[in-house]
Model the fold of this input.
Amino acid sequence: MALSRARKRGADRVDYWPGFVDALSTLLLAIMFLLSVFVLAQFILSQEITGKDTVLNRLNSQLNELTALLSLEKSANQDLEDQIKTLTASLTSSKDEQTRLESLLARGAGAASTAQDRAEILSDSLDDERKITRRALNQVSLLNQQISALRKQIAALEDALDASEIKDRESSTKIADLGKRLNVALAKRVQELNRYRSDFFGRLREILGARDDIRVVGDRFVFQSEVLFPSGGAQLNEDGLGEMTKLAKALIELGKEIPDEIDWVLRVDGHTDNIPLSGNGRYRDNWELSSGRATSVVKYLVSEGVPSKRLVAAGFGEFQPLDPEDSQEARDRNRRIELKLTEK
Done:
């Protein structure tokens, strides 16, 4: 009987322990789940923050490159604006992602009291992220202002270039007109000088008479050296003095007729043959001999009253022959004094 009552009392007792174990296990699982969620959120946030630092560093690098490229061609401006829009969209997307992470942290903050401190740390990090984002946006805004200023400068340069091109066209037109007028004036001067040259040559023919050793070659009056000088010498002989006296009178008369605006000169050119000098005489080579003969003619004309400023002496040696043949006849023709009436 006693054993039966004891069993009956044992059957009436409630066993709470299994239920308590189940509840405690469930609570631990919930806490572990929340901690896992919080750890996962922290890992995701850490990855996002690391990615944002990379993105922001890349953004700063791109902004520096864009600033350096502002001075390039105008066609690059549209590409810069497109990049800025892309960066702005990326920053906006980053802000949306930050908002989502903040919401996730807010939901996980109530899971455990220890998570609160970590959430505050993450919140501070997000604040830093916002500051960086704001600085980036400020840089983008500054870059937009610089682009706008650059456009104004380019527009001003285009206006200045257009004005310069118009001025250049006007100047080119004026220069072309002046060139035409100058060419016409020069042509008239040349025609006038040719007329006076023809008159001068005509007078010389009349004064000097028809001689085989004095002739006209092109625009030059040619004296054979033997008419004026002894062989190898540069002093005018008796015949040469007489001929140069006639020439001086003709030049003085012609100078009175030529207008003052025509700045004419008579060029006296000395030429020799190709036989080298011995070098033992007064003149060492044909250069010096040809120059000496031309100078003798010029000095004598000056002594006869021809203005010095109207005379030029030049020596060419044997290097501009009339006849390139290596014969005595060719050498005789090449030894000469040429007179040319020309402008300075």
In short: The helical segments are 2-12, 17-68, 76-109, 114-208, 225-228, 238-257, 286-303, 328-334.
